[in-house]
Write a structure and sequence with these properties.
Blueprint lengths: L1 H32 L1 E6 L4 H14 L5 E6 L1 H9 L5 E6 L2 H4 L3 E3 L5 E10 L17 E4 L3 H7 L5 E4 L2 H9 L5 E5 H10 L6 E3 L5 E10 L6 H14 L1 H20 L2
Parallel strand pairs: 1-2, 1-3, 6-7, 6-8
Antiparallel strand pairs: 3-10, 4-10, 5-8, 5-9, 5-10
Length: 255
């Protein structure tokens, strides 16, 4: 019996060693080839997300390249495997695109906010509360497309700057974008005296990194690393750091 137990322990140790070697071989491959992720042009929260994803993979020794595209194209290129994945998307993307694997924990949180011309008061209480208004959203942003899919008065544009313009010109009663992006756009276009960001958010959500299924062997390695970074507080510290750097760079660019 003692011999059998020792044999089983030996097999378990060898198995663990083999798995460790396997992980190291996988990492060695990706350290050589690197990864390319698509992301959506425009929304500034995704700029922070891109820096976080670079840091997560970079700390594993894997170089990352980011390709910026329109929203629908970014998702399409990732789902067919023309790029290796997408920087961050909402939880529902895995339901819609089964060739993409969602990695947990999340990379960053976001909140969708309603923007209106200054002085207009709208009681925001979830998507149904704005269903009777002319609502502007940016094409290819999943949470806003889901939110307005049953609305009769949608105005969909290709860029965030066009989104601001349809509000200013009265083609939309309100627009929806992330609060982070709204603050950026108002700052960039010097519109703080013309447009308000309403509270509370219309929706809050988590944004996850996605890998194409062809990289499924890498998924558990990155997820374990994400868990470690989350538990240690490192990921939270990086979020704060990259947000701060983003706003610092905006201020410097306006000097």
């Amino acid at each position: 019996m003692r011999v059998s137990i020792l044999c089983l322990l030996g097999i378990a140790l060898l198995s663990s060693f083999a798995n460790a070697q396997s992980d190291e071989e996988i990492l060695s491959f990706y350290r050589e080839t690197g990864l390319t992720f698509s992301t959506i042009e425009g929304d500034s929260i995704l700029k922070v997300g891109s820096e976080l994803v670079k840091e997560v993979y970079g700390s594993l020794g894997i170089p990352v390249t980011i390709e910026i595209m329109p929203g629908k194209r970014a998702l399409q290129q990732a789902s067919v495997g023309n790029v290796d994945g997408e920087v961050v998307r909402t939880v529902r993307v895995q339901e819609l695109r089964p060739t993409l694997i969602r990695l947990s924990p999340h990379i960053i949180k976001g909140s969708g906010s309603v923007l209106v011309k200054k002085g207009r008061n709208i009681d925001v209480n979830g998507w149904p509360s704005i269903s009777e208004y002319k609502v502007g959203v940016t094409r290819g942003i999943q949470y806003t497309e889901d939110g307005v899919k049953d609305f009769q008065h949608n105005h969909v544009v290709n860029t965030d700057f066009a989104l601001i313009e349809i509000l200013r010109l009265g083609r939309a009663d309100l627009i929806v974008t992330t609060r982070f992006n709204g603050l950026y756009l108002l700052n960039k276009m010097n519109l703080q005296d013309e447009i308000d960001i309403l509270s509370p958010p219309i929706e809050t959500f988590r944004l996850y990194n996605y890998l194409h299924v062809k990289h499924k062997a890498l998924v558990p390695i990155v997820e374990d690393h994400l868990v470690q970074m989350t538990v240690s507080g490192e990921l939270s510290q990086l979020r704060s750091r990259f947000k701060k750097e983003f706003w610092t760079n905006i201020e410097l660019s306006q000097e």
